[in-house]
Design a protein that fits this description.
The protein has 230 residues and is α/β, with parallel strands linked by helices. The chain is built from 7 helices and 8 strands. It is 35% helix and 18% strand. β3, α1 and β4 form a beta-alpha-beta unit. It starts with 15 loop residues before the first strand and ends with a helix.
Length: 230
């Protein structure tokens, strides 16, 4: 697939796993590409995620996008649904956001694939939706840079947390709390930046007081437990 490693070498070479990116990958990287709306998945072998970002709701045809997600959710190279979620800083009414989010949750549940979640100032609503729908699939909050209390709530409710560029700022919430999160719940990402995932791993390893290779092994275990891929 997109990480350019032969299957018979997979057990020997552990790639840097980038759980969420808007960019093409490096040769030593296994990543999930956040595919744009209506992205032609049939012409690409990259691992991808598909979803409706709350920032885009006002500029798309929601029904067509939901139909696209439903049609392609079972594709082998689609590993996750998202990024999608809730954002109270955008103009779109939060109820509209919740309705679309719930539709995508139902699709993800139907194909038994994890979700990559964007959440801004709406963690109470996110936790309530998880409880209300009794969600069984893995949920990954991406780009986490909030406080310890919210992180604890997420972990207690079986969420996974992905850290990205905020780790490069030593005074960020992300840099302060990553060592407090069980490593079994941690992922790393580059999101829409051009920062190499290796740099994120190196910084994370410093905070976690482990070497980069050990961190790669831990993240690789997490990835294999959540995702089915060939």
């Amino acid at each position: 697939m997109c990480f350019f490693i032969r299957k018979d070498e997979m057990n020997k070479i552990i790639p840097f796993i980038n759980i969420h990116t808007h960019r093409l990958v490096a040769e030593d990287e296994l990543s999930i590409f956040n595919a744009p709306n209506y992205f032609d998945l049939s012409k690409h072998t990259n691992f991808a995620s598909i979803g409706i970002h709350p920032w885009n709701i006002q500029t798309i045809n929601s029904k067509e996008c939901i139909d696209f997600i439903r049609l392609n959710a079972s594709a082998k190279n689609v590993l996750a649904i998202g990024e999608c979620g809730l954002d109270k800083l955008v103009e779109t009414n939060i109820q509209i956001q919740e309705d679309l989010f719930k539709l995508q949750i139902c699709i993800a549940e139907s194909v038994k694939k994890p979700m990559i979640i964007h959440c801004v100032k709406a963690f109470d609503e996110l936790l309530q939706i998880k409880k209300e729908l009794n969600i069984s699939i893995p949920l990954i909050v991406h780009g986490y840079n909030n406080n310890e209390q919210i992180a604890e709530q997420l972990v207690q409710n079986n969420f996974y947390i992905s850290f990205g560029k905020a780790l490069l700022k030593e005074d960020s919430n992300a840099s302060k709390i990553i060592s407090m999160i069980p490593i079994e719940k941690v992922f790393l990402e580059t999101d829409d930046t051009a920062i190499p995932i290796k740099s994120i791993f190196e910084k994370a390893a410093t905070y976690l007081q482990m070497d980069v290779q050990s961190l790669k092994e831990k993240i690789n275990i997490n990835f294999k437990q959540l995702f089915t891929y060939e």
